[in-house]
Each structure stands twice: as structure tokens, then as C-alpha cells.
Amino acid sequence: MSWLIMTFRTSIGKKLMMAVTGLCFLGFLSIHLAGNLTLYWGKARFNAYAESLHSLGPLVTAAEWILLILGLVHVLTGAILFYQNLRARPVSYRVKKRAGGRTLGSATMPYTGLMILGFVLFHLINFHFTDRTDRTIYQIVHSAFHNPWYVGIYVAAMIVVAVHISHGFWSLFQTLGANHPRYMPFVERVGIGVSLIFGAGFGLIPLYLASVP
Amino acid sequence: MTQGTETIDITLKVWRQKGPEDRGRFETIEVKDVETHMSFLEMLDVVNERLTLEGKEPIEFDSDCREGICGMCGAVVNGIPHGPEKAMTLCQLHMRKFEDGDTIVVEPLRARAFKVVKDLIVDRSPLDKIIQAGGYISVNVGGAPDANAIPISQELAEKAMDAAACIGCGACVAACPNASAMLFVSAKVSHLTLLPQGKPEAARRAIGMVRAMDACGFGNCSNERECEAVCPKEIKITNIARLNREFIKAALFSMEK
């Protein structure tokens, strides 16, 4: 086992953990978005989706634990990387200038990450760890998004998620060693597309529900 | 003054630090009549002559070949290692790239792994430590092998040469927001590992050099691509992807510990 620990303690090992867990979250977001889109078909379809999901029972619990572990790995590794990278340059430059590589997404990764962590906790408290005995999930979501504060926070959070993915997507390919001039421009475009799909896909739902009486 | 020579007046804000333990500070120096045909380092030479005549300590900076191939020079000029020109070392930067009245901020390459020796001179020996951890091939003594005895495709030779163009100047480290040396390490690993002579030690090299890089206190690569943008030899981050592949291969499929 020591070789495994040695491997993941290296800088590339830590980046690999970020890439693999990040990829898993992209998979999770795809499923999550597909489910949420049933909201556009109305109350009955969304509640039916929620019920069929929960009928999976232990599978859902297992998935939740896996997500929690992935989340812990991603957040803790990210925090270590952030701290080490901060330490790697104790004296900063007087003139801070970009040479042309950095993007909004890449420059803000740790900060958007922290914001997403805060949002995920907020989101879980709202919809997951809430009393669901005498309300359907649709009622909970519907009433939440008639509060303009919730709409604002959710839409803002989805913009942050889109910015995070705009760097994370192509970056995970690079970290896994998949960078070739033949397909990297395509991967980068897909990354922008994916971040827009997730940003708009999730972000428009609160706005839509706010307009549904 | 020869015909066609233009001169400009500039203000230098240059980092002065007496030694590794000194805190250091910026010194503002007004420099009049700078010939625009001078290189940046020649300009510093002129400034140093004037400082010496005034009985002041000259600005210490590194340089050697002054033709852009040795990797010895390099400072951060107005926030960019080697200055504003693409694919160029500091010695190849000329004063005609600046305007009359410009203020130019000159700082050393900054990283925890690069200790400031004096003024603009930093100790880049951690890069040598990384090389010692695997940036070589082992060759038996004896007669030199015949040239072209091992067939190598033109494409592969070109790729290896592109990586071998790295002069180890440390600009990638200086430009990286995380002070990571990944572009340097990836260039050295790529240049050797792409070629048949480098294959037998590929796994040991990848693991050894990455560990040495971490031990020297460089940061972690987060794919910011600033290194690629400032590299005077235009080393591409596809080399970093190759280093990642080599490391994964070595960690998962080799006997290296």
C-alpha cells in the first residue's frame, strides 16, 4: 500500500485525484440535471421522478456515501493544493500581469470551489435535510423558488459552477495525460459547452419555477 | 551618437536585495539617454557603469551567452518573465520595445524554491537537483555507438528536439501562479523518454524527477498555461500531459518504488 500513498502524495497524484473526482461530479451533474429537467413537465412528472429515484432504496444511500467520499477527497485535496501553491511563492510580484494563459475559470478555481462547497451545503439543507413528511418535493422546491433570495442564490451559484467547469473540464483531460493538438481544441470547446449547459440547465429552473403560480 | 540612433528616458523600479537574508526593496533609478538599439541587459550594463561612477553598488543580474540560448539570464519585467516579447529571453529584448517616459519594474524570478542570492540573481540549483533525480540516460563506457544505428522517425526526433529546446531558465516557474516547475520537468522527461535511449529508465525518471520537484518546494501545476505563454523556447504543455502519462504508467505499471 505504501506505493499507493507515495503516488497520491506527489503533486501529480494530487492532481489526478482532483481530475478523477471532478470527472465523477460531471457524471453526477448530468444525472442530476436530467432528473431536474422533469420539472418543466410539471408537478406530476417531477414527483414521479423523485419517487422512482427513492424507490431504489439502498442504491441511493450507497450513491450518497460515494458522493460524500468523492466530495471529501476533492475538497480536502483542493485545500492542500491551494495551501501548498500559496506557500510556493512567499514573496509575490509587485506587478501582477497575465501572460495570456490564465482564464477567469483557472484563476478562480479555489474560490469558485469554496463557493460551490458552501452552496452544496445550503442546497442540501434546503431540499435534502428538510422535513418531507407532509410535503411533496415539488411543493418544497416550488415554495423555495417563490422566495427571490433563493432564486438569486441558486442562479448565482450556477454561474459559479459554470465558471468552475469551464476550467475543470479541459483541465482534467490534461491532468489525465490526454492532450493532443488533434483533439484538444475540440475538448476545450466541449468544456465551454458543458459549462454553459450545466449553468443554463440548472440556472434557468429557479427562474422558471418562480414564474409558475 | 551615430545617425539613426534614438534615445529614450526611462524610470527603472528595480529590486535591490543585499543577500538571501536581507528583506529587499525596490529602488527607483531615473535612466536618461537610453539608446533604443541596446538590449535590456546592455541597458542594465550602462546603468551599472553610471552607478559605479557615482560610487554606488551596481545591480546584480545573471547573464552569459546573450544570444538567447544559454538560459542564464531572466528577470521579471513589468510582470512578465523575460519581458513582454513572446518566445524571447531577456537578453534578446531590446529597448526599442519601450516608449520614452516608461516606468519599467524589474523583479527577480519569484518562488520559494528559488532563493534570491542578490538583487535579480536567484539560485536555480533546485532545477539541477531535479535533473540529478533522473534527467539523464545511463550509458556503458566503451566505443561510441554507430550513428543512426537505432532508427528514429523524423516525427519523433522533432518532438524530442522541441522538448530538448528547454534551456532551464526558470521562466515557467516564475510565471506560474503556483510557482510550479512542471513545464521544466515535463520538457526534460519528454526529451529523454520519447527516444529509444531514454525508454529503459522512463519509469524511474518520471517518479524520481516528480518527487525531487515536490521536495524542492515547487508548487503544484493547475493547468494555468502561463508557463507556455512565457517560455522563451515555446515548450508546449502537451509535454506536461506526457509527463502525467509517464507518471501514471510508472506508478501503476512499473516495478519502481
Task: Give your account of this protein's structure.
The complex is a heterodimer of chains A (213) and B (257). Chain A is an all-alpha fold and 213 residues long. Chain A has one domain (2-89, 103-211). Helices cover 77% and strands 0% of the residues of chain A. Chain A has helices spanning 2-9, 11-36, 43-54, 58-87, 104-107, 109-127, 137-144, 148-175, 184-211. In chain A, helix 4 (58-87) runs antiparallel to helix 6 (109-127). Chain A starts with a helix and ends with a helix. The model of chain A has no long low-confidence stretch (mean pLDDT 95). With 257 residues, chain B is of the alpha+beta class. Chain B has two domains: 7-115, Beta-grasp domain (Ubiquitin-like (UB roll)), CATH 3.10.20.30; 125-253, Orthogonal Bundle (Fumarate Reductase Iron-sulfur Protein, Chain B, domain 2), CATH 1.10.1060.10. In chain B, 33% of the residues lie in helices and 14% in strands. Chain B has eight helices and seven strands, in the order E-E-H-E-E-E-E-E-H-H-H-H-H-H-H. Chain B has helices spanning 40-53, 125-132, 154-164, 171-175, 182-193, 202-215, 226-230, 238-253, and strands at 7-16, 25-35, 76-77, 80-81, 103-107, 115-118, 121-123. In chain B, the strands form two sheets. Chain B has a five-stranded mixed β-sheet. A two-stranded antiparallel ribbon of chain B has the order 6-7. The radius of gyration of chain B is 21 Å and the shape is elongated. Chain B starts with 6 loop residues before the first strand and ends with a helix. The relative contact order of chain B is 0.13. Chains A and B meet through helix 1, helix 2, helix 4 and helix 8 of A and strand 4, helix 6, helix 7 and helix 8 of B.
Strand tally of chain B, please? 7
Please, what is the CATH homologous superfamily of the largest domain in chain B? Alpha-helical ferredoxin
Approximate shape of chain B: elongated
Series of H and E elements of chain A: HHHHHHHHH
Assembly state (oligomeric):
heterodimer
Count of folded domains of chain B: 2
Number of strands of chain A: 0
> What is the CATH C-level name of the largest domain in chain B?
Mainly Alpha
Which consecutive residue ranges of chain B, at least 5 long each, have pLDDT under 50?
none
List the secondary-structure elements of chain B in sequence, H or E: EEHEEEEEHHHHHHH
In which range does the helix fraction of chain A lie? Answer: over 70%
State the low-pLDDT regions of chain A, or none.
Answer: none
